[in-house]
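S.,

Sequence below, as promised.
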Amino acid sequence: MVEIASKGLIGFVSVRHAGGVRVLTLLGPAAREEYLALVAHVAPAIESALSDRVVAHRVARCEDDPPKLSLRPWRIERRAFALRLRDLLAGASTIAIADVHRCYASISPSTVERVLGELGVGSASEVGAFLSRIEHAGGRGLPVGPEASAVLANAVLARADEALHAAGVAHLRWVDDVVIAAAGPTDAERAVAVLADAVAELGLRLNERKTRIGTPDGGVGVVGSARALRSEG
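The prediction came back faster than expected:
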């Protein structure tokens, strides 16, 4: 089902899946260009705030005039993640895997504006206003699809990376999927709690069904995704 919003600048498509109905925001050409211009302008500040613990959706190139934004090729990022994951798991006896429940849809305009403001981005309010227009038209969170959304999601989730780092937790993040290395189950549980608190401060929550604690060798059957990535290297 597709419903076109006012002026045809924004549309919505409802996609049915096992978890119910997911509403995706579709940007028309004018709205997409505006979104691109806003995020291309703030992308350098966001990129400089990210650590090497963040592998996916890193900015390869951005320009203001005309606005351009391109991300690092997926295959390169996938291999980089596999190699770093191998190093992360090398000294770990326990790992935890977690992701954010409906990440993009749950990131609010006010959260994006706040995070960009904390980065010292002068146009933070303009980005927030654009996302608020989408929200008022019926959208939910960041539009899925545009590379601009991936960049903003990284900006927001970088707060969780910082919280884990401050707590002395070794981790890697692929979009909203987080792999944590720990000395044992208790440390892993504490690390997941740190992550849960950090995303809660952003108005987000972890997907409890997909949060698992196990061993790097997959002995309890909970780390198959991490093991598969590791084997790609």
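The chain has a mean pLDDT of 86.

Coffee later?
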